[in-house]
Amino acid sequence: MTAVDDRPMTTDIVKFFENFEFPEEFKVELLRGEIVMMAGPDVAHNDIVEAVVDQIPRRRWRRLQTQDIAILEETSEPQPDLVVLERGVGPGHGRLMPSEVITLLLEVVSKTSVDRDYGVKRSIYAAAKVPGYLIIDPIMAQCVLLTEPTGHGEDADYRCQRITKFGDLAPLEPIGIELDTSEFATYEKVRPHRYP
Asked: Residue ranges of the Putative restriction endonuclease domain (predicted)?
């Protein structure tokens, strides 16, 4: 039995989520027992993900877009915008990537995902002990790198936080690169928020 199969099924929600056929035009995630559906992303969002993928060396890193994640001890199956893990690590097939093999997760904030990306996903990814969580925020024109996960469950968080404004180089220590953010676009006519 794999680590993915060892997740506790404390409720039927995980089975329901894994067996239900959701409409293809929606991104669907299971976050702490809640099913979250979102419409497709903004073009600026996709351009940012593409720009990041282009900068992560393929020889050393697997760069998986919209890969579902399995997290032990969580009723969560998030689908980050980008999953980065060492080449040669993790399964080569299947829907779920075990969180314990992941080096960096990336979420690009959308107009409706601010609270989830900065709040619940921050806690979920820290609880999963993912070494790096990068939030790219086209609303506030900033990148937030979170490292050193600590704690368990809803109390989990990251000890270190580094904020880089768009246009500057963003150090991504977990994968050993500096990310050029100069091409990252911002959303138009969106109200600023209070995070991080």
From this structure: 17-174
- Bridging pattern class, strands 132-137 and 104-108: parallel
Q: Where are the domains of the chain?
A: 4-180
What is the 8-class DSSP label of residue 59? T
The secondary structure of residue 101, as a DSSP letter, is G
CATH 3.40.50.2300 assigned to 4-180:
no
* Angle formed at CA 22 by CA 20 and CA 23, multiple of 5 degrees: 155
Please spell the DSSP secondary structure of 163-190, one letter per residue. EEETTSEEEEGGGTEEEE-TT----SS-
Regions of the chain short of the pLDDT cut 50: 1-9
With beta carbons less than 8 A apart as the criterion, state whether 99 and 171 touch: no
pLDDT tens for each residue of 165-182: 999 999 999 999 999 999
Q: What is the pTM of this model?
A: 0.85
Q: Two tokens at 116?
A: 């989830």
The values of phi and psi at residue 43, to 5°, are -60, -40
